Amino acid sequence: MSHYDIVILGAGAAGMMAAIEAGKRGRKVLIVDHAADPGEKIRISGGGRCNFTNVNATTATGRERFLSQNPRFALSALARYTPEHFIALVRSYGIAFHEKTLGQLFCDGPSTQIINLLVQEMAGAGVTLKLRSSLERAEKTEAGFALVLSDQAVSCEKLIVATGGKSIPKMGATSLGYQLAAQFGLRVTETRPALVPLTFAEQVLEPLRELSGVSTNAVVSHGKTRFEEALLFTHRGLSGPAILQVSSYWREGDAIAIDLVPGLDMLAALRQARKATPKLAIQTVLASHLPKRLAQLIGEELDLPGMIGDFSDAKFEKVVAAVKAWTLKPVGSEGYRTAEVTLGGIDTRDLDSKTMEARQVPGLHFIGEVVDVTGWLGGYNFQWAWASGFAAGQAA
Ligand code: FDA
């Protein structure tokens, strides 16, 4: 049986970061993944350009963008490994990047640059990477853990679980992390797909289908939580960053409200149009503020024929409600099949926030998405993976 100081399960963002930091400290590290390649989610992330961090992740507002039953849990790790640390690492490899919007940093080139960086760092730190291998059994021993892998038995002093969330099972997501938590007596909070497109009942969806492919800037709100970003109509429902963001807050039975013309005083714009262009139909007026197909559909739904010059303010109020407070009740989401992340996970009450170690099981750590910490869209989830991986890699 081979012995390692540390075995890490999962060669994703968090696992590789933990491996690098532990290896640099002279620890003998084995990182195991059942996939054929490490970092598969990094590869597909950010539309293939990896939105590897968000410069605002550790600002006062950025810190609020991590959802958890205990939102304070993530702060210590995030403060010790900041976006600047990862940016410095990216720069040291000469990887070109740019800020796309809202503090989101993307590679100029393919995401594989980030994977290569991590793999090279692991090699430099003497880490052993074992692919196409999975865990069959884990047991606690006096000295640490005894593990039966699909092709080898190993023992280790410390075990770091970095097997990620449940999203995109096609890419190799499994529930191993949650099962290990249960085996070792840690609590797991309710898990659900997040950063995911929302779906609608057929009667709502049917007229919207013709808008499939249309995108517009919008404010999408759920209660007091609001996101101003792109909204995308698809043949299955609504998507785009604004919807993905709100999906982390939405629960079954809740409504969402959509402002299709953020920042515009629609009533004033309509009154102005009544004066300036009285002969126009409402669809035509709306089309100067919205994508044409969307304006057309709203006009049809409103069923307000005639010229705008003849419209009363009462009619305008109807138009304003339709474009600024469009209220919809999703029936569900597209689920783990397309969700970017899993909300919920290993209950942070059972973990130490500085080391990510299980309070009741010395030597057992959980990091990354498997933990009940979920970031907003826009690089927050990778920043959590880097920071929690760093914390465990320093401690284990
Ligand atoms: P991650 O999922 O990366 O790694 C877990 C590893 O464990 C995988 O390699 C898996 O194969 C392995 N594993 C699982 N079960 C196993 C088993 N039973 N045995 C052995 N190995 C096992 N975030 C962000 O900040 N910016 C972005 O641009 C994007 N973009 C994005 C796009 C898409 C399409 C998705 C699905 C997700 C994103 N994300 C993102 C989210 C981000 O990818 C995610 O939060 C991190 O990858 C989580 O890192 P982890 O290391 O925790 O898990």
UniProtKB/TrEMBL annotation:
InterPro entries for this protein: BaiN-like, BaiN-like_dom_sf, FAD/NAD-bd_sf, RsdA/BaiN/AoA(So)-like_dom, RsdA/BaiN/AoA(So)_Rossmann
Reported cofactor(s): FAD
Domain RsdA/BaiN/AoA(So)-like insert stretches: 192-341
Keywords noted in UniProt: FAD, Flavoprotein
Residue span, RsdA/BaiN/AoA(So)-like Rossmann fold-like domain: 5-394
Domain of life where this protein originates: Bacteria
Pfam families attached to this UniProt entry: HI0933_like (PF03486), HI0933_like_1st (PF22780)
Listed name of the protein: NAD(P)/FAD-dependent oxidoreductase
Species name: Paradevosia tibetensis
Lineage start: Bacteria, Pseudomonadati, Pseudomonadota, Alphaproteobacteria, Hyphomicrobiales
